[in-house]
Design brief:
There is one protein chain. By secondary structure, this protein is an alpha/beta fold. It contains eleven helices and ten strands. The strands form two sheets. Strands 6-2-1-7-8-10-9 form a seven-stranded mixed sheet. It is globular and about 60 Å long. The termini are far apart.
Length: 277
């Protein structure tokens, strides 16, 4: 197998960046080349330059390559603190606005552990299923297909769920060697495809009280990152809450957001006024 030349790889990386905002190099120098090698092996292709030329003319195959780059790294109640923050925010919001229906967005939602954790945390906090809705969006159709099955193995549990005693036991059902999410939880979550950096994305949906957007901004190009921050700001209600990943706080502060609360250093509120422009 002859791998593509550096020029062809750069052209492919540029095409991925233009459409999805991803910078493949930020996932590791060998990430794009490794994904391409696996795809070539599956296709039985021998010439890398010719394969990339064909690939650039086939949007579906490029999407499959992007799926290879988007390695899902997620588990139930990952990092714990975001879910404590969510519960506190939800209870305070509904206490002052009891008629509200809390709207939460998880983007990217990966294979579903995060949005289902959000739903379980809210149910465990005492909210009824009609008091909230969780939208779960991802650019990867493969991830969405896995998430919608709501079946999880042991890799989806890494200890963080123990901070919420009994929650997983109440809302997950053991079936053989896997767990399936209860119907009560599944009814509160809607999965759909969305591109975090696309202009006017989600413009047809009402704004959200809470958005979880964790561990994706670090993989975007600078221009795509700014587009994502503007979208996140546009999707949030005034007084809403954005929760980002640990290494992304500095990036979020560069956008139209301010710290939400000292005890939650990775939570931010949208700026309202001239600075939001």
């Amino acid at each position: 197998m002859k791998l593509p030349a550096a020029r062809q790889l750069e052209e492919l990386a540029s095409a991925i960046s233009r459409r999805w905002g991803l910078d493949p190099r930020l996932a590791g120098e060998q990430s794009l080349l490794g994904a391409l090698r696996r795809q070539m092996q599956q296709a039985g292709a021998a010439d890398g330059d010719a394969y990339v030329a064909e690939l650039l003319e086939d949007a579906e195959r490029v999407e499959r390559l992007v799926d290879e780059l988007l390695v899902p790294e997620t588990w139930f109640f990952r990092d714990r603190q975001p879910f404590h923050c969510l519960r506190q925010y939800a209870l305070e919001r509904l206490r002052s606005n009891p008629a509200d229906r809390l709207r939460v967005l998880s983007i990217p939602c990966s294979t579903g552990e995060e949005p289902f954790s959000i739903a379980m945390a809210l149910l465990d906090a005492g909210l009824s299923a009609i008091q909230f809705r969780v939208d779960a969006a991802d650019v990867s159709q493969r991830h969405l297909s896995l998430a919608s099955q709501a079946i999880f193995g042991k890799a989806s549990f890494r200890g963080d769920e123990r901070e919420f005693p009994g929650v997983c036991e109440r809302y997950l059902e053991l079936r053989g060697a896997s767990y399936t999410v209860s119907a009560e939880v599944r009814r509160t979550v809607e999965f759909f495809r969305a591109n975090l950096v696309a202009p006017l994305m989600l413009s047809e949906r009402p704004r959200y009280h809470v958005i979880f957007c964790r561990n994706v901004l670090i993989y975007l190009t600078p221009a795509a990152r700014q587009a994502a921050l503007q979208n996140l700001h546009r999707w949030l209600l005034a007084g809403g809450l954005l929760y980002c990943g640990h290494v992304e706080a500095r990036l979020v502060r560069s956008g139209p957001f301010v710290p939400f609360a000292r005890e939650f250093p990775f939570a931010f509120a949208p700026v309202v006024g001239p600075r939001a422009q």
